[in-house]
């Protein structure tokens, strides 16, 4: 397949061509990863993704790709030096959008490449099929698997809405909208049959009208085709065309199911935790008992200064480490990555299962061997696999609080319940200025720190002064300068919350 074909399919949302010394008709045969820490493993016709290398660190990889006669290399940040190196090496240079995840780009780029059956019959690629569906329906098309991962999409000059934009970038759509889809039973309808489902627009969420249909092999759901309405209404034949398109798309997705089992297991966990697949079905696939207790643990690599691609690489290594530990603990464990976090489902647990030791072992191993700081939240053990979402939501609440203002490495809701509740209240205050006291927001840093220390000391001036390393009279003078009635317990309550937010 030519480089031109791949660029047209992926389009501006993901990559942009910088230089092409041999033109755009060069053949692309495979998509490979080039890591600066590993020996170059690239061949003629490869599209090489340069992970973990930016600036001058990418120069040796570009030259190595050129010597191997690769078709193109992709970097997260282009420069004049990299472009000149690519020209000299005779290899095309692509710049990847900063917000695009490497794993997502690799999956989509491989999806563009033409697939063939064992007898050599060309099935064509999903991107071309998405474009055909767009022509027939007059809309903007995306094809997703059962875990709502975008496999292919159509090009469009029309305005795309927020849900489509985030889906293409590999991120989750607006949660209020996804919640409504679940409440309306949209996912159940798409999973259960071939009926075309109509979804009204939601202007307040930036979501346009769309129609969708499930893709099936017999009774087995394979994915979904979504058609967003663009600047013009969908065609009169859109629903009929969409039904036919679902039947044509099924063989393509069946072919993709020959990919490694790990991707399939990731999809299972994502589908379970978002309510798109029932517990009994997932349990049957992984050999677990859906009636036994289960729990979800969520991990996140702590944010750090440095190269974004390096952070992605550390996160990928972290996911591999977690997978090994989880599989050793439970053969039926599932691991999946979403939104920069790694989710672990541990089924078939004993009612008194102790997961903290396992989680601490993983965090310690990551710090020691990967030199990566990680935070982990352990959801409560729920009675059956049906309640796995409850465990996940609890773990996410704890991890959200840890990311905002908790320095712990491993925690459960029972360990930090008060901190989690306060953290969630502070998040509401942060997002809603109208429910804050402007007098407190206006305090200078010295007065704000003094007042919070005084309130934390329960009004003990001497204890607060000791913590601030000032004379008690100095603290009394500062408190008198504050235009608040500190004898009022409600004033003290809102002041303490608001100051803690600062």
TrEMBL record:
Which branch of life, at top level?
Bacteria
- List, for all copies, the residue spans of the domain called PucR C-terminal helix-turn-helix: 447-500
One of its Pfam families is: GGDEF_2
- Domain named CdaR GGDEF-like is located at 278-401
Which InterPro entries does the record cross-reference, listed alphabetically?
Answer: CdaR-like_regulators, CdaR_GGDEF, PucR_C-HTH_dom, PucR_C-HTH_sf
List the PANTHER family. CARBOHYDRATE DIACID REGULATOR, CONSERVED PROTEIN
Which family is it part of? Belongs to the CdaR family.
Q: What is the name listed in the Swiss-Prot or TrEMBL entry for this protein?
A: Helix-turn-helix domain-containing protein
- Species source reads Lentzea sokolovensis
């Amino acid at each position: 397949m030519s480089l031109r074909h791949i660029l047209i399919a992926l389009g501006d949302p993901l990559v942009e061509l910088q230089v092409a010394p041999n033109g755009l008709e060069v053949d692309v045969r495979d998509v490979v990863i080039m890591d600066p820490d590993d020996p170059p493993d690239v061949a003629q016709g490869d599209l090489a993704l340069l992970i973990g290398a930016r600036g001058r660190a990418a120069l040796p990889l570009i030259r190595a790709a050129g010597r191997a006669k690769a078709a193109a290399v992709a970097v997260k940040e282009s420069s004049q030096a990299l472009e000149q190196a690519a020209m000299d090496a005779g290899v095309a240079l692509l710049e990847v959008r900063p917000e695009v995840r490497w794993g997502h780009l690799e999956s989509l780029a491989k999806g563009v490449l033409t697939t063939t059956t064992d007898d050599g019959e060309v099935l064509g690629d999903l991107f071309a099929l998405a474009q055909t569906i767009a022509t027939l329906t007059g809309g903007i098309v995306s094809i997703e698997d059962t875990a709502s991962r975008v496999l292919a999409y159509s090009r469009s000059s029309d305005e795309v809405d927020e849900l489509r934009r985030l889906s293409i970038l590999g991120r989750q759509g607006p949660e209020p909208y996804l919640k409504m889809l679940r409440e309306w039973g949209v996912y159940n309808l798409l999973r259960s049959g071939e009926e075309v489902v109509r979804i009204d627009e939601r202007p307040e969420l930036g979501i346009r009208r769309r129609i969708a249909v499930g893709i099936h092999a017999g009774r087995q759901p394979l994915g979904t085709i979504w058609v967003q309405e663009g600047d013009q209404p969908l065609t009169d034949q859109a629903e009929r065309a969409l039904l036919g398109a679902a039947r044509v798309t099924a063989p393509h997705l069946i072919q993709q199911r020959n990919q490694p089992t790990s991707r399939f297991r990731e999809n299972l966990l994502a589908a379970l935790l978002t309510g798109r697949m029932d517990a009994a079905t997932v349990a049957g696939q992984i050999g677990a008992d859906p009636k036994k207790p289960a729990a979800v643990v969520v991990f996140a690599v702590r944010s750090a200064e440095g190269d974004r691609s390096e952070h992605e690489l550390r996160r990928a290594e972290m996911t591999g480490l977690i997978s090994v530990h989880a599989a050793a603990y439970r053969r039926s464990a599932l691991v999946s990555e979403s939104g920069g976090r790694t989710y672990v489902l541990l089924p078939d647990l004993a009612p008194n299962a102790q997961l903290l030791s396992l989680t601490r072992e993983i965090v310690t191993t990551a710090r020691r061997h990967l030199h990566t700081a990680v935070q982990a939240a352990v959801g409560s053990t729920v009675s059956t696999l049906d309640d796995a979402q409850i465990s996940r939501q609890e773990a996410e609440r704890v991890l959200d609080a840890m990311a905002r203002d908790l320095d712990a490495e491993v925690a459960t809701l029972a360990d930090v319940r008060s901190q989690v509740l306060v953290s969630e209240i502070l998040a509401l205050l942060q997002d809603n200025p109208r429910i804050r006291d402007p007098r407190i927001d206006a305090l200078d840093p010295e007065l704000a720190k003094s007042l919070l220390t005084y309130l934390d000391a329960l009004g003990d001036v001497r204890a607060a002064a000791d913590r601030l390393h000032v004379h008690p009279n100095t603290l009394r003078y500062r408190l008198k300068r504050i235009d608040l009635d500190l004898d009022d317990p409600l004033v003290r309550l809102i002041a303490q919350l608001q100051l803690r937010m600062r």
